[in-house]
Amino acid sequence: MDKSTIVCRCEEINIDEIESAINLGAHTFNDIKRLTRCGMGPCQAKCCMNLVRQIISDKTGHPLSEIKPPRMRMPLSVTRMGALAGTRASSVASVFGESAEEGETVHEEKL
Amino acid sequence: MKKSYDVIVVGSGVVGSSIAYHLSEDKSKEILTIDKDFPLSGTSGSTQAWVWVHNKTPAWYGELNMYSAELYPFLERKIGDVEYKRTGGIAPFFSEADREKALKLAEKQAEVGIKVEVLSRDEVLEKEPALSRNIAGATYSKIDGNVNPFRLIELFVRAARKNGAQFLFYNPVTNITKENGMFKVTTQDGDYFSNQLVMAGGPWSKSLGKLLGIDVPIKQVRGQVIVTEPLSPFLSHTIGGMRQADNGEVLVGYSKEEVGYDRRSTLDIIQDTARMAIDFVPALEKVNVVRCFSGIRAMPEDGFPILGEIPGIENAYIAAMHSGITLSPLVGTVMTELLSDGETSIDLERFSLKRFDTIQSIG
């Protein structure tokens, strides 16, 4: 393996990019993920998890057993939006609705 | 590592790292930024990162956001490509009865120079054909946009370091005292001293404030977001509720829950959010969701930024707010003015922590 070897296939991230993130001070998979997008693709780190943990271990000197995997997030495999959507009307607040509702605040009245 | 600095900034999120960067620009101060974790591990790394102006109310608050949005192109020239795009912002409404409210908003915002248009359904669909035909209209402004938060904070930190500022990560601050006029900041790594201290702890500002013996009236609000697979570009604006990133992913979400620091995703909100996505853009029904994330946002009790000197503690400052992504270029600029010259180009009086004393005395 050389520095251009791809570790994360989904986002096409190579070893060099992971090492750069570690050089910037990142020590955890989650931190590397946010800096490089490694592990953010459709497989959600299923392919790259242990490769990245190994690189972190090699670079930082911490034993592999101490390097945590990235945070697992719902849904665990890709899911259609339509399958996730509830049948009830959405209760998520609307951006427009909030701007229309907000009146002058207590703080504003005091000024 | 050096122990004594001109300024210590606590917190390296979008607000803290912007202050550190702007302070470092003229290279006249020695600056240390301390963070309990790593940049992007908190609020700044779990956001849709809209640079959003047009329906922030009251108008004076919208105005503050507008000034900040206007600084983004200059910021990008200084620190590098943060994928800032001034896409224009569309906030749809679904009932014709809302049009009057929309017109009133446009009128109010015009007083401070924010140009808001109220669009008919056809005008909205002309701008953004993927939106649902069920919408009644939308408010629209050219000033809104979005940014890549990962690039933004990384480049703030890189640019500040290039100017000589130092950063300490994974290093919680456990105590703050004042000794001989200097702040003594005790961390896991040891003690650091500074003449000036800036608290930029976002949703953690309350516990940081306690170290200084002050109450920072700030709440934690969880927001949950859905991320789709990369799709060919079809959304060209930032929509109130969703946006499409450069790589094609669509981010959807506008939830608010007060659950402390709990960052789990929950099925009920995710189902609601997916429903909202389809209500806004029917074609999203057939796309794949790759992941969900949630973030804890800072929300001052009255919704507005807490910015400026900490009353009663000389040389201590605070910057804590919602909408840190939108406001960070401006906050970095005015806090630098305040720390360096003692006065600012924008009057910060109304953002002072002092205002809450009044509110408390009423209660």
From TrEMBL, chain A:
Residues 6-57 form the BFD-like [2Fe-2S]-binding domain. CDD domains: GlpA-like_Fer2_BFD-like (cd19946). InterPro entries: BFD-like_2Fe2S-bd_dom, BFD-like_2Fe2S-bd_dom_sf, G3P_Oxidase/Oxidoreductase. This is BFD-like [2Fe-2S]-binding domain-containing protein.
TrEMBL record, chain B:
GO terms for cellular component: cytoplasm. Residues 6-338 form the FAD dependent oxidoreductase domain. Gene3D superfamilies: D-Amino Acid Oxidase, subunit A, domain 2, FAD/NAD(P)-binding domain. GO terms for molecular function: oxidoreductase activity. Keywords: Oxidoreductase. Signal peptide: none annotated. This is Sarcosine oxidase subunit beta. It comes from Lentibacillus amyloliquefaciens. The lineage of its organism: Bacteria, Bacillati, Bacillota, Bacilli, Bacillales.
